[in-house]
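Data deposition worksheet. Section B asks for the primary sequence of the deposited chain exactly as it was used as input, without tags or linkers unless they were present during the calculation. Section C holds the resulting structure in token form. Section D is free text for depositor observations; keep each observation to a single sentence. Incomplete worksheets are returned to the depositor.
Section A, Depositor: J.P.
Section B:
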Amino acid sequence: MAGAVGISFGVVIGKEVFGGTGRNVLNPALTGRAFLFFAYPVNMSGDRVWTAVQKVGGQAVDAVTAATPLALTSLAASGESVTQVLTHAGYTFGRLFMGNLSGSVGETSTLMILVGAIFLLVTGVANYRIMLGGVLGMLAVAYPGYLLNLSSGGQAAPLFSVNPFWHLVMGGFAFGIVYMATDPVSAPGMNLSRWIYGFIIGALTLMIRVFNPAYPEGTMLAILFMNIFAPLIDHFVIKARLRKRVPNV
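Section C:
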């Protein structure tokens, strides 16, 4: 039922009200997900993600619920490294990259997302500038925060204690920057605009994660926010190019 409501909201409010296919300002899939997230927060929380139980033989139940890696970051005590909390729970960098963990369908395995990204780039469906811009934007915020945390003795925001590259494989950032941010309709059309667009998405994603503990994942909101500003970015990039043209004599 909730899925049907989300799809209907995404198609009608996210696309049709703007004029239909090719005219939507917001990504319809993310519009529907945002509606479900805020309308049914309990059903969309990490506590209802299922994970398999291993190495316990016939005594195990079919499945148990477990917190996602980003949900565990809020459990870190003051001055405690989030990396230690994740490692203690069994979430190593390798496991996060491979995807053998709790999380939403399609977003857990960064390896498989990279395979999909290569396919999209080879077929010309997606633009690499948005993807790389997002990665650079996230690292541009994560690295100064990481260094600040080290220099302050771990007194900065807890998520700044995580190695910056861990942020790339946690949560839905990889999935969002590859499959959602590259939507050719809601993304900018100019190459420079795509770099700026992706960079700000990556930076916003990390800032939402770090400074809003109640909402550990910021990819969805970052992309929707930048969807709104994509035409404006294109406008200023085109305007800047026109200024450089030699006027007709």
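Section D:
The mean pLDDT is 82.
Residues 68-244 form one domain.
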